[in-house]
Specification:
mainly alpha
Length: 129
């Protein structure tokens, strides 16, 4: 049987509120970083930190609240935290590699084809002899 929010002890309500606000603030900072930073590579870093630590704060608040409200340990939030902790860096790395590959392809397309240098023409003539 779950207790109502009004029956939650003061220390637990303060702890839940603290972690919930911490998670929300960290997520907000990550979102602002996504909007404000100038380059893609800089913008990529802020949301990953906001995701990891923001979800961590929210997850802790949820685990504390439901553990106290249901009078039994509720630990399935830890699975969410593990999943986010594992997938966020992988997503970060894949996005960075894709952007790096895109930048290299665009850079190679922007460079005009090299004309035959006199040295290369001389080598080709010497092979015919």
């Amino acid at each position: 049987m779950m207790q109502s929010v009004a029956d939650l002890p003061l220390w637990a309500a303060l702890l839940v509120a603290f972690f919930l606000l911490l998670g929300a603030v960290l997520t907000l900072i990550g979102s602002i970083g996504l909007l404000r930073l100038p380059t893609f590579y800089e913008r990529l870093h802020a949301p990953t930190l906001g995701t990891s630590w923001g979800v961590g704060g929210t997850m802790l608040a949820s685990a504390i609240y439901f553990s106290i409200a249901s009078t039994r340990p509720v630990l399935h939030e830890i699975l969410i935290g593990v999943f986010v902790t594992v997938t966020t860096p992988i997503t970060f790395m894949l996005l960075a590699r894709a952007a790096l590959h895109r930048d290299r392809v665009e850079q190679n397309e922007a460079v005009p084809e090299k004309a035959h240098s006199p040295r290369a023409d001389d080598l080709a003539e010497n092979r015919d002899d």
